[in-house]
Specification:
The protein is of the alpha+beta class. It has four helices and six strands. α1 packs across α2.
Amino acid sequence: MRTCSKCGELKPLDLVHFQAEKRTASGLSYSCRVCKRRAEKLRRDNTLSEVFRGIKNRCENPNNVSYQWYGARGVKCLFKDWRELNKCVGSRPSPKHSIDRINNEGHYEPGNVRWATPLEQNKNKRKGSTSAKIRELEKQLAEARQEIDRLNEMVSLQARALNESVGHGLKLKQKLTAAQQKIKRLKAWKKN
């Protein structure tokens, strides 16, 4: 028989009732499997209380980095405490799971929360948020294209004006050169 170091009950010393823990100064410390399960449940409950604190924080604390997507949008935590949350969703199925709202426009409330994997949460995004961003970017792109077209038109007009003035200048230069040649011929003719 062995006494459980956690609950103090005397139980048969076998693998059904006991599991060796860590070494202490006095040797091995033993706790019964029932106490181990209680300790494991308490650890899971503590994890759930941390999840609950995270929910409350992002819904109620404007200094939280996630507040803009939760509290600022009007999302509230309607659970009184983590125990009420535990009644709705139970213990976390695995470390990969995190709390998820079924309806992303709704609150953290009974019937609207579940444990979900990252893949499940990725499929449960707000509708329209991505398409709204795309529409905004398309609008900015259209405005940029209009500005480019306006600038191209201005450059084109300036280029035409420059070509006309250069062309006019070339005609003047040709006329001037022709006049100078006539003057030279007249001067040469007068000499003769």
